[in-house]
Specification:
The chain is an alpha/beta fold and 295 residues long. The chain contains seven helices and 16 strands. The longest helix has 23 residues. It is elongated, with a radius of gyration of 21 Å. The termini are far apart. The relative contact order is 0.13. Bound molecules: zinc ion (ZN). The site of zinc ion (ZN) has 6 residues, from loops. InterPro entries: MurNAc-LAA_cat (IPR002508), N-acetylmuramoyl_amidase_3 (IPR050695). GO terms for molecular function: N-acetylmuramoyl-L-alanine amidase activity.
Length: 295
């Protein structure tokens, strides 16, 4: 009997989502079967878990959750996807012995390819935006997240225009509006942090232009994706009348990624690894919005 010692996931953008199972001391035989368009089952023979049955939630835009359970003398792995795709696998004999399952991310490239997204990293220069209890500046967070989002989305062949690319004062709203009108993007995201005066833990919030029902729909989709990925409370969606969202109300949202005045949320916002998680949350929301508009 071999032991399963670990279950993990990673992403190779834009090619594959990877789910890995580690074994000790040897690999074992396994069988891959497709249960339906969004679910795979992998059975590992003569194996047992050296930890309690568990689930992981990669939420990487393609792999939603992975469940591992013991069943007499074999182990069952269930993988649930958000889009139908193909699987490939590789076994690696090293320390630890590994089975790597590769899920093809082409469906995500198909959704994002040639889409034009405008991101406005709010504030900048002498306009700091909100300031956290330990002096983290909103303008720094929004610019960094915008750059990371651009880099990630471009791997999926999307076009991304940032309305601010350095620590300069923001363009006047009228100029931003003219730029958005001339680009006529598929989606516009005004990126902020929240700034609750009492410093409460709020989580992400997503705003839409008050009269746009389409804006409300896409705000809902983004908010759901952020809430799922960031594991903070759900700040919900809200109406706004800011003129930037009025430019293209059906394609515009305002994301307040986390609340910068909360000691807990600012701590996570400072973390380099968590910034990538926030960007993955934004990516998931953007991808889901395009998936919604093509179905
Ligand atoms: Zn702001």
């Amino acid at each position: 009997m071999v032991l399963v010692t670990n279950l993990w996931s990673s992403v190779s953008h834009p090619n594959n989502s990877i789910v890995g199972v580690d074994f000790y001391p040897d690999l074992t035989n396994f069988e891959v079967s497709r249960l339906d368009s969004l679910r795979y089952n992998i059975t590992f023979q003569n194996a047992s878990l050296n930890f309690p049955p568990t689930s992981i939630f990669p939420l990487d835009g393609l792999v939603d959750n992975v469940e591992l359970s013991q069943n007499k003398d074999h182990i069952e792995l269930y993988v649930t996807l958000t889009h139908p795709t193909n699987i490939d696998y590789k076994t690696i004999g090293k320390c630890p012995e590994q089975v790597k399952l590769y899920f093809d991310r082409t469906p995500l490239v198909n959704l994002l390819k040639n889409k034009h997204i405008v991101i406005d990293p709010s504030h900048g220069g002498s306009d700091y935006g909100s300031i956290s209890p330990t002096s983290l500046l909103e303008k720094e967070v929004t610019l960094d997240l915008a750059y990371r989002s651009k880099e990630l989305l471009e791997k999926y062949q999307a076009y991304v225009t940032l309305l601010r690319t350095s620590d300069k004062d923001p363009l006047p709203t009228r100029k931003k509006q003219n730029k958005i009108t001339s680009i006529n993007p598929d989606l516009m995201i005004s990126l902020h942090t929240g700034n609750d005066v009492k410093g409460k833990v709020i989580g992400s919030r997503t705003g839409f232009f008050k009269t746009s029902s389409q804006g409300k729909k896409i705000a809902n989709i983004m908010q759901k994706a952020l809430y799922k990925k960031l594991i903070f409370p759900n700040g919900g969606i809200f109406k706004t009348n800011v003129s930037l969202l009025k430019t293209l109300p059906d394609k515009s949202i305002r994301v307040e990624i986390l609340n910068i005045t909360s000691r807990l949320e600012e701590g996570w916002m400072r973390d380099d690894g968590f910034r990538d998680i926030m960007v993955q949350g934004l990516f998931n929301g953007i991808k889901d919005i395009f998936n919604y508009s093509t179905t």
